[in-house]
Amino acid sequence: MPKIKGRVQRESWHTKSAWLLVFLCMIILVAQTTRVHLFPDHRILRQSERQYWAQVPVSTSRGDIRDRNGIPLAISVPSASFYIDPQFWDPANWKTLGEYFGEKTAERFSRPLSGRFHWVVRKVPADMAQGLIDRKVPGLFTTRESQRMYPHGELASHVIGFCDIDDYGLSGVEREWNSILYSPPQTRLFVRDARGGLLDLIGSNAGTLQVGSGSIKLTLDSKIQQIIEWKLKEGAVSSGSKWGVGICVNPNTGEILAMASYPWINLNDRKSFSNKEKLRNNAIGRVYEPGSTFKPIILGIAKEMAAVSNGERFLCRGRLAIADGVIRDVSTHGDLDLAGLLIKSCNTGMATVGQRLSSHKVYGMLKQFGFGQKSDVEITGEEEGLLRSPEEWLGMTKANVAIGQGLAVTPLQLIMAISSIANGGELLKPYIIDEVRNANGHVIHQGRRRVRNAVLNSNTCAWLRETLNKTVDTGTGRGAKVDNIKLAGKTGTAQVALSGEYKKGRYASSFLGFWPYEKPEYAMLIVLGEPSGARYYGGEIAAPVFKAVLEEMSQFKVIASSD
Is the pLDDT at 481 greater than 90, yes or no? Predict the structure, then answer.
């Protein structure tokens, strides 16, 4: 019995000794690990400081935008972005950067930098970047990204819009359809070894950035767009106009074939974005008083309400007192029939017609024509215009509205309203998106003809088309007449109001028309805003621009003659 007891005591002591030894080893390991982490060798510190990893978001390929014929208007192309790791960067090399990016950009790298990552320049075209890449400047590194490119620069700039540096849409189609076009950025995981070598853990040097975006096809015709932009600029420069608009639509479908806003911007030059006024799309984002181009609409409403008759005569003496004001004409037109009110653009005769109409009924009809409300065209920046409620139509208001003053419209609203006369009486919804495809190439949206309202009967429209054709042949629209094209049109000259008052010498001059007038296929509006020259009437400066566009379109066989 004593022997067994002694053996048990010895075994117990050996077990405790083993655990004590394990415990001491653990203490030694923990102590050594703590020492290495808290008080590392200075050689290890220097080595580790030359290594790092970083997560950097870089842009991927954004979806294409093309015109109705497949011509690219916005695409994404490969580019290179440069960044500096201060650990390897020698500030003395800043002048090398200056040779490529300019001293203003490079100078901030002429002194020691903190941290491990600083962008120098992003999205440099690949061919331009290659020279700097080949120089292998220590501490200067590059990564591949995708850059938004606009092959035609200024063409349709306000329609297309632009993106920020990360390719997120900020205006126009780029913004309105950003959810389709935008491909979220990828995150690059960069690892630098002790010698400064670059390791990209997702293989940026190997391949193509992922694409997860759709594409857009517009209704725009680049040929028509280019012609209108050329001639609109010529007209604006020669007349000293501050702004201009040119819109061409298919009056039978609502398709927008061209939408030009002057002055435009170069989408490839972000410096041109600094002028905020240039960023406005005047076709949808500017409201103005339409002047005499509004008279066909009012006369159409008057005929629908039986407030006038075809056999009626009007005596134009050049001046008409109404309430507390006076309506004036440029000249005395004498005795005119109903059609003569449009052909001669008689203000006093139209004011007489306006006084006969019910304020509430005219207001309701103008709303049916789309005024005072957005058309919901598929791009950003559209204004509603200004159409006061009928309770505010006091004094001269009805007379002023009849001659196109006292209300404000957008150019797009006006051309769509006139298109309803061209197509036989239907106000159509304008559309500028022909087709949208998702990332898999499937069509998810198709533009189509949509009727908003029936506004006039076909007989009224036929009479207006015939009368507007005579306006071009023998009336105020003669400046837009083109041989072999059967054009119907109307001039307009309206004063521009500033802070509620009309300012002398400030006008919006315009011409609108459609052709061939019996069965129109095109409708177009040209507006020149605030010309500074001696000439400012629509028939003097806007009609010749309209004519020049038609002649150019005919010459390049964009349209055929009416013969």
Answer: yes
